[in-house]
Amino acid sequence: MKNILILFITVILTSFDSISENTAVDSVTRNAVTSFSRRFVVQGGLSGQNLELALWADDILEKIERLTEMPVPFIKGHKLNIVLKENVEKGAERVIRRQHFEEGKLYQLIEVKGYQVADQEDLLEAITGLLLNRYVVIEQGYEKRREEIGRVPDWFSVGMAQVLFPELRARNYVLVHQAWSNGILPQLTDYLTEEYLPRGRWVNKAMAGLVFEWLQGSSLEMPYKQLFRHWGKGKSLGFTELSRIFPGLKNETDFLKTWDVWMASRIDGEKRQQIGEDNFYNLYTEIQTLSPGFKLTSSFPGIPEHIRLHKLHEYRDQEWYSSVLFKYRLMQKKPVNTSLEEGRALQRSFTNYLTSCAYLSVKKKLKKSKIKEAKQLSAELLMAYQNYIKAYEAQQRYFATFEKNKAKAEAEISSEKLEVESADRAYLNQFEGN
User: How does pLDDT run across 110-161, given as a tens digit for each residue?
Assistant: First the structure.
């Protein structure tokens, strides 16, 4: 229902309330758009760009709430404001996030400077971070909030942002594995106590994604409520605090061993997964564009040269219908896997449609409701296929972006390795000199 409403959503032009007299915001508002959830206001770009970003922010909000199983705290009328600006000074930070508390109201703002070329991943992390901060702020008392407004540490917000979109994970596995192999990966327990990550460090960003994924998916289970309450008190997260919050923890040595074993298995699994995703894509592209009559023309001369899969039910009266259906069922049994949610939705839709088509082939007298059901499942299958293609292509774009920046990331890793080796040599020289 929501998707249908989004398709017909009207761009809501509003006068953008200044988020605060103390915050620099353009006085002239251009095409401000309120998101479907009424949680975000985007301004500064063209109406279409603002709307697209507002809907994307809503998608991020949904994913976070699904992961935490808690609604992000919003008081009625409060919104997260995103301002797009065309110009950016050379060397200036492109995505800036701000928040402060005033007169009982939480003000949050993201400024995107030079938004035409700004990194979408930086914006993803900014939106995720400010939304997660709301969980912490709600746990703070009034005095604590006046002293310092609550926030989650960078590794947590960046880590969650990374796992919200599976296509980012492949890049993270590669980077962390390289850093791990070169002996420059930060110590896990030290890493978790850091509140801020060094800017522009790909390895730290990648590690945040893996640490979050590990804690989220491990037998430890992520105790979100306890973590937000802990950070609401302004405390860091050392192993002692971890052992209180995560009841499954025994000792620090086992904790680190579990992390090492998990990471090694995930890196190996990711290599297999990338191959598997391509195989899944190739199979379902072949199924959708298949020429089913290729090997059946001798037995059934009248079979069309091409049949779109989602149109198969329209040929239910043809004598070759069952043979083509059987061919599709054989293809469906091929052992391919997908890491994408859209891929799994396509599998389910394909199965449902073939089941409906099979019913049409055995029943001579059909109820209108069954024919109507087949048509509905046909439309759902086509939509599922189109959604999967978009998701797969988006995944490939992320991989391509990573490849473009791979040299830079590897140079960063090599530089850090040299720094470590240089520090080791300096220490040894000093030791030997004494």
Answer: 999 877 777 788 899 999 999 999 999 998 887 778 778 889 999 999 999 9
Stated as kind and residue range, the H or E segment containing 41 is strand 40-43
Look up residue 10 and give its two tokens.
């009207």
CA–CA gap between residue 253 and residue 259 (Å, rounded): 10
Number of structural domains in the chain: 2
Identify whether the C-beta of residue 252 lies closer than 8 Å to the C-beta of residue 193: no
267 domain-assigned: no
Is 101 domain-assigned? yes
Residue 214 makes CB contacts below 8 A (sequence gap 6+) with 259, 262, 263
Look at residue 223 and tell me if it is in a domain.
no
- Which segments of 289-337 does DSSP mark as H helices, in order? 321-332
As a whole number, the mean pLDDT across the chain is 75
- Phi, psi (5° rounding) for residue 113? -95, 130
Within a 10 A sphere around the Cβ of 408, how many other Cβ atoms? 11
**Rounded to whole angstroms, how far apart are CA atoms 257 and 351?**
42
CA dist 345 and 176 (Å) reads 30
Q: What is the pLDDT of residues 15-35, one digit of tens each?
A: 333 333 333 334 334 578 999
| Residues making up the chain, counted from first to last | 434
Q: How far are the Cα atoms of 31, 48, 200, 276, 369 from residue 86, in angstroms, in the given order?
A: 14, 15, 22, 41, 54
